[in-house]
Every structure is written in C-alpha cells, then in structure tokens.
Design brief:
It comes from Lithocarpus litseifolius. Its main location: membrane. It is found in: Cell membrane. By secondary structure, this protein is α+β, with helices and mostly antiparallel strands. The strands form 6 sheets. Strands 17, 18, 21, 22, 24, 25 and 26 form a 7-stranded mixed sheet that branches. Strands 4-1-8-7 form a 4-stranded antiparallel sheet. The chain is flat, with a radius of gyration of 27 Å.
C-alpha cells in the first residue's frame, strides 16, 4: 500500500479503517466509513466491482387487472435497471402469487445503490399462465406470460422517502397511459442490516523486531481479507507510528462489508514504513474478527510470525499483537440519514472571467449552441444537479457568478446569477440553466479568478443553518476555466469551512493547466493548511478536470460525487448527529 499516495506524509496516513483527525480527539472517534480510494483502486485494477450499499426492494401491488376467466391473476414482478443506452438489464424476479389481485411478494430484489449516479428502475408485472406454475421463475419466458403493467422510477426517489416506500401507477409498456386502471405498485427499500454493523478496535504491538540500523522501526498494520480464490484483498491500513517498537495505533473501525463475517480469516501484517514504498515486513498473523474479540476478552496477545526460508515453515516472533478495546455496534449509513429527513442543499457558482472567451463566438466555453448542444458549464450543472435535486425537498438552489462585470459596472466575485440584488435562489436545475443563459447577456466577462468570496458566502449559509436545523448539508459546485489567483485566501476559506456542513465540488473546464488546483483536493492524504497554520478538520473538496474524463469510463458526476457520502458521514459522526425523525433532528433557533 506504499504507493497509494503521492507524497511521504500522505503515505503515512491511515486508510479505510480509521478516522484521520488533526489532534487527540481521534482517539475517541470512529471511522468515517466513507469512500476509500486505495481499496477501490485495488478492486478496479483487478476487474472487481467496488463495494456499494446493498438495497433490498420489497414489492406489493393493488387492484391489478384480472386476466384469468375462472380465477384471479397469478402475478409476478420483474425488476430492471435502465442503462444509459435505454436497454434494460434484469435485476431479479419475485415469486408467483396465486389467485391475487393485491399481491405482497416475499422474494426481495437486491440492487446496489450508488449515490453518485441516477439509477432508473423499470418494473414489469405479469400474469403467469397456470401451465408454467411448476417452472422456476428464473426459467419463465416472459413473452409467454400476460403483461399486466409497467412502472418506472429512480432509486433515489425511493430511498429519500421517510418511509422508504414509493407507490406508482401501473401503465402500458413504454410508459403509455392506459384508459383502464391497471392498479398500483408499491416499492419499499431496505438497506441490508449487515451493512450497518461495524467493529471498532484499538490495537497495539509490543517487542517488535527492529528493521532500521540507526533508529527504531516506523511500524504500521495492513489488514487484508482472504477471498475465495485464495488471494487477499486489502481492506485498511493504520497510520505509521514513528520510531517505536511498541506502537499503539488510533482506533480501527471495520464494517461487515469489509470483513464479510466475524469468522472470515484476515491477514494482519506489520510493516516498517519506508518512503521508497519498499516497506519491510516485520511480522504477520492470521486471525478472524472473532479471534480478535477473543484476544480482547482474554486480555492476551498473539505472536507475530515471519516466513521461514524453508518452504511451509514460519518463525514465531517475540513481538505480539494485543486488542485493547473491542466493540461491535451499528454504524448509521448515508441512507439512514437521508431517509430520516436529512437533505443535501445544492448551490452553484459559475466563472465569468474573460479567459472563457466571448460567449457569442462558437469557440467560447460559454457559447450557447442554438441547436441545444450543451457547453461544459451546462453539462456540469445538469449532471450534478440531476443527482442532488432528489435530496433537496424544496429544490430552490442558490446560484452565483464570479469574476464578471455586472450592470452597475463593478467587477464582482460573488453576484446573484438571476440578476436580483436580494434573492439569490432559483427554482430547480432548469432555473439555474435559465439564469445562467440570461446572465451571459447582462454580465461582461472580466476577472481575475477568485474563489474565496463564493466559498465564504456558501460557508455563511451553511454556518447559519447549524443554529436552527442540523438536518441540512450543503454542496457547492464551482465551475471554472482557469487557475485561481487567490490560492492562499481560498485555502484559508476552505480550512474555516471544514468545520461546517459543507462540501465543495470543483469542475475545471477548458484546456488550462489545473495542476495547482489539485492541491485543494486532499486526495493525496494531506489536509489543507491555512496561513495561520491551522489544519483542515476534514477534506471537503473534490476537484475534477472535465477533459480527463473519457467517455464511457466515468462521468463527470460520478467523479465529482463519489466522495460526497463519506464527507457527509464524517461531518455527522464527528458532531455525534444521529439520524432520526425529522422533528427530532430539527431544533428552533
């Protein structure tokens, strides 16, 4: 795992199992449970799909059409995912319920929930002919069954409901409304219980072998899960403890999604950190989570081993691993918060600096194509807004511009996109698009490129919400064509904002060199530092240059939003804000 980060300090950070915090508070807080770049890269590079939240869909229907003459229909439901090309991919089928126009199917259909993409679902209900009742449902040819109706929705529409249930009218195929009442279909979503369970541990080692000549080793642990093929998949690593043969690491928090079951064997390896990435193995052992719990209960240690030159033999070392704390608990997920009334409030800021080019010229980044071809700014607004709007109940979005000369002749670095001197919100994604198009006629492109004012404005709104409503989390999308000229002021603003319920997504459009911008995104493991030396509480920025996203591999919205649930959870858990009924989470000022 030594090459997971691009710098030495970043490489010493914990990954996937501990919450990284700037001070001693870390000792009492659990893992953020969010996105893990290192582990996901390992999965993707080996053709393995990364872990997503597993959702079970339960289906029921009411007032279905009766297609049978001597009895009632025998309904079965089929669930599909609708792909980008419009094709349907079958996800699963329910059982057949005999003689019922109001079936409540028992068989669940599992779907992997991905926050960062819109996931359209299509539901078909069939009346299964009696001559096929002895045929397994997976073997049934759907063309041989009578079609009862179709319903469509987006998975986000279900999971954002407080009841996690959505009732839809059944229509004819392809969404055509029927003159007859075809009945309704109700979909209920439940996160699989196992995905919420996590184990929190504090571990230490004693009497480790020293691998350095002129100092003591710098040990860290890497924990891997053994897979069916016999290989292993890394699930987390601890931070590096410098110059210490008796290290105590910060708390580890492993989800059941990571270790599978308490009896699954895990490989725990202790390495001496080297900045070259060639870490030296100090020792290893194989234990399950159940074994680690037993070590804690018995207050005993487990000896590390070292592979012997003789095949099949291992050397028992003096060094031991101890489990000082062990607790199993339920870890609230992103969906737990969203379905109990928590919201993501979308905000957008658009670059109106002169480097974008004259909007009237087709080569301008701000050119509005008369034939409807979206420019890069419009694409980013549409793709991100399309996802986040499902998590914002009123769909009223603050929208600003920066770096432009407004009607009064002054250059502003945070002006209301709709041209109003007071109201800064617009109605829906369509409202943002319309305000953007109007602003191009009313605002002259100027400069320079400053992020500080819009970040401070967004932070002000997020900060004000804390006093009266803890269920809101804010997401600011900044779209820009150039490198910022107020880098240190922006860092200062981001460090201050890291304590607030706020994440910032930055899209770079055009051909500028955005390498300086990447310092704002702490994906290298190092958090931002302000001019006064204060370190950001957490990473709140995700930066993506649009040109680096190749068609068919990953969309702008996926690259931007993949870290957002983890950032949301880090904030909520660090403030000990728990999901619950909407009225309980919201307080009066």
């Amino acid at each position: 795992m030594g090459n997971c980060f691009s710098d030495v300090e970043g490489g010493k950070q914990a990954v996937g199992g501990t919450q990284q915090r700037p001070n001693s508070i870390a000792a009492s807080n659990n893992n953020n449970g969010g996105h893990n770049d290192a582990v996901e890269f390992f999965f993707r590079s080996r053709g393995i799909q990364p872990l997503f939240t597993q959702i079970e869909l339960s289906l029921s229907a009411s007032n279905l059409l009766d297609r049978d003459i001597t009895s009632k229909s025998d309904p079965m439901a089929v669930v599909y995912a609708k792909k980008r090309d419009g094709k349907l991919e079958e996800l699963g089928r329910t059982e057949v319920v005999l003689n019922s126009l109001n079936p409540a199917w028992i068989e669940k259909v599992t779907v992997a929930f991905q926050f960062e993409i819109v996931q359209p679902l299509v539901f078909h209900v069939y009346d299964v002919d009696s001559k096929y009742h002895n045929v397994p449902v997976k073997m049934l040819k759907l063309n041989d069954q009578e079609f009862l109706g179709e319903a469509t929705c987006v998975l986000s529409e279900i999971v954002t409901k407080q009841t996690r249930s959505l009732t839809l009218n059944l229509n004819n195929k392809n969404g055509h409304t029927s003159l007859r009442n075809l009945g309704t279909l109700t979909i209920h979503a439940e996160e699989t219980v196992s995905s919420r369970i996590c184990v929190e541990m504090v571990v230490h080692c004693s009497h480790l072998d020293n691998k350095d000549l002129f100092s003591k080793s710098d040990p860290f642990l890497r924990i891997s899960r053994i897979v069916e093929s016999g290989g292993s998949v890394p699930i987390c690593k601890t931070e590096v403890v410098k110059d210490n043969l008796n290290p105590i690491w910060k708390p580890l928090c492993l989800s059941i999604q990571q270790f599978g079951s308490k009896d699954n064997p895990l490989i725990i390896e202790c390495f001496d950190f080297n900045s070259s990435g060639n870490h030296v193995l100090i020792g290893k052992l194989q234990k399950s989570v159940a074994d680690l719990e037993k070590l804690h209960i018995e207050r005993s240690g487990a000896n590390l081993t070292f592979p012997s030159p003789h095949h099949g033999h291992v050397k028992i070392l003096k060094g031991q691993l101890f489990v000082d704390q062990f607790c199993e608990k339920q870890q609230y997920s992103f969906l737990d918060y969203i379905s109990s009334g928590f919201e993501l409030n979308f905000m957008v800021a658009i670059d109106f600096t002169a480097s974008n080019g004259n909007p009237r010229n087709p080569d301008s980044l701000h050119y509005i194509d008369p034939f409807g071809q979206l420019n890069s700014y419009q694409r980013a607004i549409m793709e991100v807004g399309e996802v986040i709007q499902f998590y914002d109940s009123d769909r009223r979005f603050p929208a600003w511009g920066f770096g432009g000369r407004t009607i009064d002749g002054t250059t502003s670095h945070c002006f209301n996109l709709n041209g109003s001197t007071g109201a800064f919100e617009v109605e829906g994604v369509e409202g943002i698009m319309a305000a953007y198009a109007r602003a191009l006629h009313n605002v002259a492109l100027a400069g320079p490129t400053l992020f500080g004012p819009v970040i401070n404005r967004a932070a002000q709104i997020a900060g004000q919400s804390i006093s009266y409503n803890r269920t809101k989390y804010f997401v600011l999308l900044i779209i820009t064509d150039g490198v910022i000229t107020d880098l240190q002021e922006t860092k200062d603003a981001l460090v201050r904002a890291s304590d607030l319920p706020l994440s910032i997504l930055i899209v770079g459009v055009g051909g500028a060199d955005f390498r300086e911008m990447e310092v704002l995104d702490a994906d290298n493991g190092r958090r931002l530092e302000s001019s006064t030396g204060r370190v950001a509480t957490r990473d709140i920025v995700q930066f993506v240059p649009m040109r680096e996203l190749h068609s068919g591999q990953i969309s702008v919205v996926q690259a931007l939003l993949e870290e957002l649930p983890g950032q949301f959870l880090t904030y909520m858990r660090s403030r000990d804000i728990k999901p619950g009924p909407l009225h309980a989470a919201s307080t009066s000022a």
